[in-house]
Every structure is written in C-alpha cells, then in structure tokens.
C-alpha cells in the first residue's frame, strides 16, 4: 500500500486514482463496490456484462476530481445498450467541460442498492493533526450541514458518540419500517479512516461520499484521497 502512495507522488499526482484509492481502502477494511477500469467503449460494455447489471460508469481521469460536475457519472445502467449510450454521453460532456483533461478510461462499478447515505471524511489539521468527519451524505451534505468532527485516533465508543451527535443517527436506527443499519460496521469505518490518516502522513484529505449503510455492512461508493508532502 505504501508503494501505491509513493508511486502516485512520484508521478506528481495530488490525489490517488480511483483504482489506487480503492486498494488503499481495502487495506484498511473500508469496503468499496466491485469495479474495473475499461479503456474503451466495447471494453466498458464487456466489463459491465461480466460484472452483472445494473452498473455505474465514472470517468477515469487524473484531471477531474469532481466527476458529477463534469457530467462524468451515469448510474443504474441496466443493459449493454444503456451502457454504450452512457459512455458516449459521458465522453461528450467531459470533452466539452474539460477539453484539456487526460482521459485514462472509464470506471465500471457495480450499482449498489439504496441505503442510508452518510459521509465519512478526514483531513490533516496543521494544529491538531488528523481529524475525522461524519454526517449526512449524498447530495444534501451542503444543505443540512449535519456534520461532526473528532480527532484521530478514535475508539469504537468515540466513533459511536460521534454518530449519535448527528441528526442522521435517527435514520440509521431505522424509521418507517426500515431495519436499523449496522452501526458497528459504521463505527469501524470511522476508526479505520482515522488510522488511515494517522499512519500515512502523505494523505492530506479523504472523502468517502456517499457511504451506503445497510443492516449488515457499510460500503463507500466513492473514495477520494488527496495526497501531498
């Protein structure tokens, strides 16, 4: 895992490519959906068929950090035809909005079922060191600002208290017939995020949004890891 970070720094990158970020997450017990990198349209369709529909397509480029803003994401693709059309639409949008971006391919990711959406993040504060963030995730994060911060390292008990301080905690407990989410798995992800920051000084910032919470696990659908000396 250290090699992944060092190689990215040597290339002058300021964040880990998606594939590398997911490998780092796996090393720290942070689950991500199955995914592969496809170079072209036909390879993308073939990968989607092998993975099994539905799938998500995401532009794979070192120059595009926020893929949704670039029109670089298509979700819930159910057939090879939909996948091919989504590939063309993404490439067209990205070429118009980021004409100078280097495009390395497309990430084909397994579409996860709906769950309670939260965000787990972290940053390296110059005064206090690594700080772990938790709150309501998805597209509403900037609307409701339901966020709590804790200094790393975290214990399981501290992570639980961090979750309980947010309003999204009520959703995680189960409402309107929905089953409670796996809070132990969510706490472990918070603890592991703190350890990831503590043990790798080159990691400046992490952003897992959304993290989908289910009754038996939690999955980081999108993993963004910023690096630097």
Q: In short, what is this structure?
A:
With 229 residues, this protein is α+β, with helices and mostly antiparallel strands.
Main attributes of the structure:
229 residues; 8 helices; 28% strand; 4-stranded antiparallel sheet; single chain; D-amino Acid Aminotransferase, Chain A, domain 1; alpha+beta; 2 domains; 6-stranded antiparallel sheet
Indicate the overall shape: globular
* Contiguous runs where pLDDT drops below 50 for at least 5 residues: none
Q: Per DSSP, what share of the residues sits in E-state strands of 2 or more residues?
A: 25-35%
N-to-C SSE string, H for helix and E for strand: HHEHEEHEEEHEHHHEEE
Radius of gyration: 18 Å
* Secondary structure: helix percent: 25-40%
Structural class category:
alpha+beta
Model description:
It is globular, with a radius of gyration of 18 Å. The longest helix is centred in the middle third of the chain and has 18 residues, at 80-97. A hairpin with a 4-residue loop joins strand 8 (203-213) and strand 9. The strands form two sheets. Strands 5, 6, 7, 8, 9 and 10 form a six-stranded antiparallel beta sheet that branches. The chain folds into two domains: 2-31 and 113-227, 2-Layer Sandwich (D-amino Acid Aminotransferase, Chain A, domain 1); 35-110, Dna Ligase, domain 1. With 229 residues, the protein is of the alpha+beta class. The chain starts with a helix and ends with a strand. It has helices at 2-10, 18-27, 41-51, 80-97, 141-144, 156-164, 168-172, 183-199; strands at residues 35-38, 55-60, 73-77, 105-110, 116-125, 129-136, 147-151, 203-213, 218-220, 223-227.
């Amino acid at each position: 895992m250290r090699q992944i970070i060092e190689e990215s720094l040597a290339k002058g990158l300021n964040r880990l490519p998606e594939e590398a970020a997911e490998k780092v997450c796996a090393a720290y017990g942070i689950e991500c959906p199955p995914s592969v990198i496809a170079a072209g349209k036909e390879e993308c369709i073939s990968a989607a068929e092998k993975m099994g529909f539905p799938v998500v397509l995401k532009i794979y480029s070192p120059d595009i950090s926020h893929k949704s803003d670039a029109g670089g994401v298509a979700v819930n693709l159910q057939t090879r035809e939909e996948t091919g059309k989504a590939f063309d639409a993404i490439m067209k949008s990205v070429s118009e909005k980021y004409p100078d971006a280097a495009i390395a391919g497309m990430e084909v990711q397994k579409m996860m079922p709906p769950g309670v959406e939260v965000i787990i993040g972290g940053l390296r504060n110059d005064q206090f060191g690594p700080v772990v963030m938790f709150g309501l995730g998805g597209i509403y994060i900037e609307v409701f600002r339901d966020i709590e911060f804790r200094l790393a390292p975290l214990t399981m008990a501290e992570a639980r208290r961090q979750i309980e301080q947010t309003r999204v905690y009520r959703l995680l407990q189960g409402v309107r017939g929905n089953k409670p989410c796996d809070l132990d798995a969510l706490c472990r992800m918070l603890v592991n995020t703190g350890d990831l920051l503590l043990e790798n000084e080159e990691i400046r910032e992490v952003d897992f949004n959304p993290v989908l919470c289910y009754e038996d696990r939690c999955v980081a659908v999108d993993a963004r890891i910023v690096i630097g000396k």
